[in-house]
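Contributing new records

If you add data, match the layout below exactly. Sequence lines come first and carry their own label; structure lines follow with theirs. Keep one chain per record. Anything else will be rejected by the validation script.
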Amino acid sequence: MNSAKRILLYWLLAAALPGRLVYSQPIEKPSQRVLEYIERYRVLAVEEMRRTGVPASITLAQGIYESGAGTSRLATEGNNHFGIKCKKEWTGPTLTHTDDRPRECFRKYATAEESYRDHSDFLRTRAHYGFLFLLDPLDYNGWAFGLKKAGYATSSTYPRSLLRLIEGYQLHQFDRLALQAPATSTVTTNK
């Protein structure tokens, strides 16, 4: 998406969602860091849902959870917001980090946008995640439990953690927004 369209989409989202988010199941003390993360990456999550079908709510919740709302070492040093490990096919830059085992290889990205795109592609192109794309795009609950079932995370509380973020910060509103017809730019270019 070119920068003019991205800016237009950002402003349309900002107009549709003025001010701070409203909570359907309030988090007692919303984290300012999480709110800032949502503000920063919500447009990108909506774009990725439109591009690949990965729910924006899931993308944002995973980004918040996996990166500590952008503050983890993987996020700050490697722009890796989703804890994606190298895997055998990865030929890009890497970052060594202790996770389940000492000194594991993680993907490193030039930008957070690259991380978001790779996350969507990672889910979209692996057969063991294929069943998720058969779910209703608004079924964030099915996605949260499906990610665990497919092996994305080892924590038994992973689905509940994602759901707490999605419902507490109303991230599901971005799924509905992504399913709306995208705005068309009125900017014309000479070809």
